[in-house]
Design a protein that fits this description.
The complex is a heterodimer of chains A (411) and B (199).
Chain A (H helix, E strand, L loop, with lengths): L6 E5 L3 E2 L5 E2 L2 E8 L9 E5 L26 E2 L4 E2 L4 E5 L35 H14 L7 E5 L1 H12 L6 E5 L7 H15 L17 H15 L2 H7 L46 H16 L2 H13 L10 H4 L6 E7 L7 H13 L4 E6 L13 H15 L5 H5 L1
Parallel strand pairs in A: 5-8, 5-9, 6-7, 9-10, 10-11, 11-12
Antiparallel strand pairs in A: 1-4, 2-3, 4-8
Chain B lengths: L3 H9 L6 E5 L5 H10 L2 E6 L2 H9 L4 E3 L14 E7 L8 H11 E9 L4 H8 L24 H10 L2 E10 L2 E3 L3 H4 L2 E8 L6
Parallel strand pairs in B: 1-2, 1-4, 2-3, 4-5
Antiparallel strand pairs in B: 5-8, 6-7, 6-8
Classes of the chains: A alpha/beta (411), B alpha/beta (199).
Chain lengths: 411, 199
């Protein structure tokens, strides 16, 4: 079993940000798995999405159920094999898992005040995160990544790596991602942000000094997010119109008990089968599930981090500096690419991945693209579809493990 | 059509160093051969999950795409060669894809089982659909949604104003230029978009 050890690195120097602002005296939490080889050619950076962290793989010693968020993908003998690759996970700036974020003391606050950043944390972008990751890698002595890999917002970072540091990335693996967000996607983010900002406990982002947390807003933000991460089919299969069982505490607020079955086939005898005629209490299992997910999330996630990270999603648009021409924007890329999408992912649809693929083809980049017919919506990128897992494994075995960069192979 | 002789016969039609798009590339064997033996680069297009993985496994670039949706992802004349090797018989939109092949590639190469090959004719004369090494399926259980002949393709190519650069039959690894329609199990055409077929 892979034992993970969280590490932290401090940076005294100033990191300039896309907004024109900068950040100094910051820390990055990170974890590494496997060993860096002698010529430092086997490093793989994993970028996280909205609510994940540097804890990518393995478990913490003595802690049950502490597996990293991509533990099915990364580890000894897994598709990204930590017996071959030196894998690095980094918590991004502005997040809330140890790296400097809104909950940390603001170095520019009056000395001794101990004031945290709160709403004053600078707006960070995907490009800023990549810059910060690049500095961390430099300190680890890694000049060139064998691969950078991420799903969703993490995929945006992988793509951005290939554009910001084209000579420092041999391969980019971009899963369930997009070259920018659609209006609908920004709209979902905005609803989530308004839920947080309009929570009376938000206090303009400086709720820490009031000793409160805008949990109502966070819960609703998470509920909205969760709806968009699943597919209609999966939601119907898992919950259907099932009513919440009144006397099954084990199932309260969690997935339906095994064997409960969807309500479509008629109510199971185990489940309550009559309406309570209530407008505010939980009636359907899907409500119970969403409330549970919302409650869990509000316990651990920072409200300002949520605003910052969804904004980073909104702002990401590498084609913007080329007048919207993605092919022109990707002309800088030198890496080989593996792009993967999932047919039922409507938040980051296959169409968006195809745009990336087309721009890479226009630039004669090395690229493979798999469109996995998985039922699970956006969440599929975290799950165990054998076709998905198999493609990633094959790519790492055949391409990433090769010591040459694709352009050298072609010559 | 995985046999080595056929593959090298097709490969000979592809110029050295060409940028190749292989429509329905299967497990990527031909592209791997073209990369290794003729210094080509390019991509395969494939729909089947297992084949996509096989391509990635052997280091061949592959794009998972349903050819029935066309080639909108690819610009005009963006490849030196577009291959359709044993793909035509699986396509619903064979004529559209033929035009697309000629649009995207400076040269198109199509190979497919020739239904007019004499053993097939004999079989039909006897009143039964053929089951042969080249067409190994029963009529009621086949992935091929159409069959056509060497001459049929020639007519279709002319209808679409394609300029045929080369046409021959392949049988037992030999290229047949005489009476290919009857003598060859496989029809091979090399063509490009005709001068009057612009737009």
């Amino acid at each position: 079993m892979l034992i993970a050890t969280p590490l932290s690195m401090h940076f005294d120097d100033v990191l300039p940000l896309q907004s024109g602002a900068s950040i100094r005296d910051y820390d990055l939490s990170y974890e590494t798995y496997g060993s860096l080889n002698a010529d430092k050619s086997n490093a793989v950076l994993i970028c996280h999405a909205l609510n994940a962290s540097h804890h990518v793989a393995g478990s913490y010693a003595g802690q049950d159920k502490s597996e990293g968020w991509w533990d099915n993908m990364i580890g000894p003998g897994k598709p990204v094999d930590t017996e071959k690759f030196f894998v690095i996970g980094v918590n991004n700036l502005g997040s809330c898992f140890g790296s400097t974020g809104p909950m940390q003391p603001d170095p520019d606050a009056p000395a001794g005040s101990g004031k945290v950043y709160g709403a004053d944390f600078p707006v960070v972008t995907v490009e800023d995160w990549v810059d910060a990751q690049a500095r961390l890698l430099e300190r680890l002595g890694i000049d060139v990544l064998a691969a950078v890999m991420g799903g969703s917002l993490g995929g945006m970072q992988a793509l951005s790596w290939a554009l910001q540091y084209p000579d420092r990335v041999r391969h980019a693996v971009v899963v369930a991602s997009a070259p920018n967000l659609t209006a609908e996607n920004i709209a979902f983010n905005e609803v989530a942000r308004r839920a947080i900002v309009t929570d009376p406990d938000f206090h303009g982002g400086n709720f820490y000094e009031h000793g409160v947390i805008p949990k109502r807003g966070l819960r609703i933000a998470r509920m909205i997010g969760h709806i968009t991460y699943l597919s209609d089919d999966v939601m119907n299969e898992k919950f259907g119109r099932s009513l919440r069982a009144p006397t099954l505490p084990a199932s309260r607020g969690s997935l339906p008990p095994e064997g409960a079955g969807p309500a479509r086939g008629g109510p199971s005898p185990d489940l309550r089968d009559s309406y309570q005629y209530t407008t505010q209490d939980v009636e359907f299992q899907i409500e119970s599930y969403l409330r549970h997910q919302g409650n869990k999330f509000a316990e651990y996630f920072d409200a300002n981090s949520y605003l910052l990270i969804t904004r980073a999603l909104d702002y990401f648009d590498p084609a913007r500096r080329c007048g919207g021409d993605l092919s022109a924007a990707l002309a800088r890329a030198r890496a080989g690419f593996l792009v993967i999408s999932f047919t039922t992912d409507w938040r980051f649809s296959p169409q968006r991945s195809r745009e990336t693929v087309k721009a890479l083809l226009d630039n004669h980049c090395e690229v493979s693209y798999a469109e996995i017919d998985a039922p699970h919506g956006h969440d599929a990128f975290l799950l165990d579809d054998p076709r998905y897992i198999g493609i990633v494994r094959s790519y790492f075995d055949s391409k990433v493990a090769s010591p040459m960069r694709p352009s050298e192979v072609a010559q | 059509m995985s046999d080595v002789l056929t593959m090298s016969s097709i490969a000979r039609l592809v110029p050295e160093g060409a940028r190749v798009l292989d429509l329905g590339c299967g497990d990527g064997a031909l592209l791997a051969h073209l990369q290794a033996e003729r210094g080509c680069s390019g991509y395969g297009i494939e729909i089947a999950d297992a084949n996509v993985q096989a391509c990635v496994k052997r280091g061949v670039n592959v794009i998972q795409l349903n050819l029935d949706e066309g080639l909108a992802m690819f610009d005009d004349a963006s490849f030196d060669v577009v291959l359709q090797i044993d793909t035509l018989q699986h396509l619903r939109n064979a004529e559209v894809m033929l035009r697309e092949t000629a649009r995207v590639g400076r040269i198109g190469i199509v190979a497919f089982p020739n239904f007019a090959h004499w053993p097939n004719r004999l079989s039909v004369l006897r009143g039964r659909m053929p089951v042969t090494r080249r067409l190994p399926y029963q009529w009621y259980d086949t992935p091929n949604i159409r069959v056509g002949t060497y001459r049929d393709f020639d007519a279709l190519a002319r209808k679409n104003s394609l300029q045929i650069l080369d046409a021959f039959g392949l049988q037992d690894g030999r290229e047949l230029h005489f009476l290919a329609n009857a003598r060859a199990g496989t029809a091979v055409f090399r063509f490009r978009r005709g001068a009057n077929a612009s737009g």
